[in-house]
Amino acid sequence: MADRRLTGATPWLRVLVVYALARVATTLLIALSSALAPAEGRHGQDPSMLDYIAGWDAAWYREIALNGYPSQLPVDESGNVQENAWAFMPIYPWLARGIALIWPGAGVGSDDVWAVANAWAVAAALISLVAGFFACWAVYVLLEHALDAQRALWGTAFVAAGPLALLFQVAYAEALFLAIAMWALVALSREAWWWLYPASILLAFVRPGELALPLTIALYGIWRILNRRARPIARREVVHILGTGAVGTIAGFAWPAIVNRVTGSASAYFDTELAWRAGWIPGGADAFVPGEGWLAGARVWAGLWGIPQWAGYALLAVIVAAAVLLFLAPGVRALGIETRLWSASYLVYAALVLFPQSSTFRLLLPIAPLVAGALAAPRLLRSSRIMMLIVFAALQFWWIHAMYGYGNTYYLVP
Predict the structure, then answer these.
(1) Which of 174, 183, 173 has the alpha carbon at shortest distance from 138?
(2) What is the 3-class SS of 153-169, one letter each residue?
C-alpha cells in the first residue's frame, strides 16, 4: 500500500522520500560501524562521521582543493613515479572548496588549516548527498521509461540503498559522476542532443570513465541506423551523434594531455595511474597495456588466495562470461536501450583500463542502474523486494565496516 501511495506522488518527490530513508539507514550503519571500530582500525576507536567522510581517496581530493596539483611528479629513489594528486580530477574538489568558502573561519585568507579542511569535507559530503539524489532521480526516469512507476521506484531504492550507498555520503566523486552520467542518458533517450555536449565535458573532469559516454553515443547511432525502417533517423540526428561523440572523445583524452603538459612528461598520467597498481603487482607495473590489468589481477589474487594461476585465469573467464550473459537476462532486456548501451560501454572501458582490486566494486557503480533495473524488472512479490533491501543493507554494512571501520590492510581500500 505504501509503495502505491508513493507512485501516485510527483516523480521527484517519490525519489526524495526513498532516497531520504536510504540515507537515514546508511547513517545508522555508519554509527554502528563507528561503535564497533577496533583500536587497530584505520581511524582508531569511535571514529567520527567526519573521519568516514574524509577517509581514503577523499584526502587526495582535499589535498587538491587546498594545495592544487604538483608541477613535478614525485618519484622514489629508483625514479619510479609515486602516487600523486594527478590521478584525481578537479571539478569535485574545487566545487567543494568554493562552497566551503562560506563556512565561518574557512573563507579566503583563512590560516586555520583544520577549519578549512573540515569545511571542505562537509561541503564535499553535501555535494555527494545532493548529487546522489539527482542520480537516483535520473535512474527513476530511465527505469520508468522502460518499466512502470512501481518497479522503477523499487529499482531506484536498490540504487539508493545498495551495497555501495555510502558513496552518496562521503567525499568521493562517484555520486557526482553518476548524476551527470544518468542525466546524460536521459538526454540521449529524449534526443536532447544539446545537453550531451556540456555533460561530456563535465564528466571528463569529474573522474575517469567519461569515454564510455561517446562509445555509448556511437553504439546508439549504429542502433538507430540498423533500426531506421521502424524509426527513421534524420540528418540532424546524425550530425549530433557525430558531434557529441567527437566532443566526448576529445574531452575524455583532455585530462591526460593536461597532466602530461603541466608536468613536462609525455607519460605522466599513465605513470601516475600505474603507481596505484605498483603495490599490488610484484616488481611493479612497467607500462599501460589495455586489458592487461585484469590478467595481472588474476595472477595477484591467485597468489593472495593460495590457488594456482590457472585457477585465477579460470575465475576471470567466469567473470567475463557472467558479464556477457547478464545482458541476455530477461530483466536486463526489458530495460531501455540507453541503459544497456551505457552499461556495456562502461564495462568495456573497465575491461580495458581497470586493475581488479578492492576498489573495483566502487568503480563499477556507474552500471548500478543496469543491475538495479534487472532486479526490479520482474514482477516479484513486495516481500521478495524487501528481502533484497535487507540483503543490500547487510552488504552495505560489510562494505562500510570493512573499508572504514577496519580498513587496515592494502586490500581493504574503498
Answers:
(1) 183
(2) HHHHHHHHCCCCHHHHC
Under 8 Å between Cβ of 387 and 250: no
Three cell numbers at 194?
A: 544539446
pLDDT tens-place string over residues 16-38: 999 999 999 999 999 999 999 99
Query: What distance, in Å, lies between the first and last C-alpha atoms of the chain?
Result: 37
SS3 54: coil
- Give residues with Cβ within 8 angstroms of 40, minimum separation 6: 408
Averaged pLDDT score across all residues of the chain: 91
Distance (Å, rounded) from C-alpha 66 to C-alpha 261? 22
Asked whether residue 107 carries a pLDDT value surpassing 70, the answer given is: no
When pLDDT is cut at 50, 70 and 90, the band that residue 412 belongs to is confident
Answering whether pTM is above 0.85, one says yes
Which residues have a Cβ under 8 Å from the Cβ of 35 and sit 6 or more positions away? Answer: 46
State pLDDT tens for residues 205-240: 999 999 999 999 999 999 999 998 888 888 999 999
Instruction: Please enumerate in sequence order all residues whose Cβ is within 8 A of that of 28, keeping only pairs 6 or more positions apart, or say none.
Output: none
- Compute, in degrees rounded to 10, the torsion defined by CA atoms 215, 375, 373, 317: 0
144 touches 11 (CB < 8 A): yes
Q: Which long-range contacts (CB under 8 A, 24 or more apart) does 289-295 make?
A: 290/352, 290/353, 291/351, 291/352, 293/353, 293/354, 293/355, 293/356, 294/351, 294/354, 294/355, 294/356
What residue type is 391 in one-letter code? V
Residue 317 grid coordinates? 573467464
Q: Per-domain residue ranges for the chain?
A: 2-406
| Alpha carbons 299 and 276: distance in angstroms, whole number | 17
Q: Report the interhelical angle of 149-160 vs 382-400 (nearest 10°).
A: 20
User: CA-CA distance, 29 to 34, in Å (whole number)?
Assistant: 9
> Which of 82, 29, 15 is closest to 271 using CA atoms?
82
DSSP state of 81: B
Return d(Cα 274, Cα 287) in angstroms, integer: 7
